[in-house]
Amino acid sequence: PRDAAGDDVRNLMLSPLAGHDPAMLLDARPLAGQILDLLEGTPRFHQLSAKFAVQLDAGENLAMLEHPHDLWLSALRLGQQTWLAFGLAGCPADGQVLGAVPADQGLALVRAVLERFLDLATPAQSRMRQLLEVCSATDFIDGLGLAIRRDAAVLAWRREPRSVSWLGVLPQAQSVALGVAPPQGRLTPAMLRGASRVAREHGDGSLRLSPWQSLVLTNLQAQHIDHAQAGLSALGLLCHDHEPLARISACTGASGCAKALGETKADAVTLAALLGPGVPGSVHLSGCPRSCAVAHVAPATLLARAPGRYDLYLRDARLPGFGALRATDLTLNEAGAMLDLPTEHLDD
Question: Which of 90, 240, 241, 307 has the fewest CB atoms lying closer than 10 Å?
Answer without folding.
Answer: 307
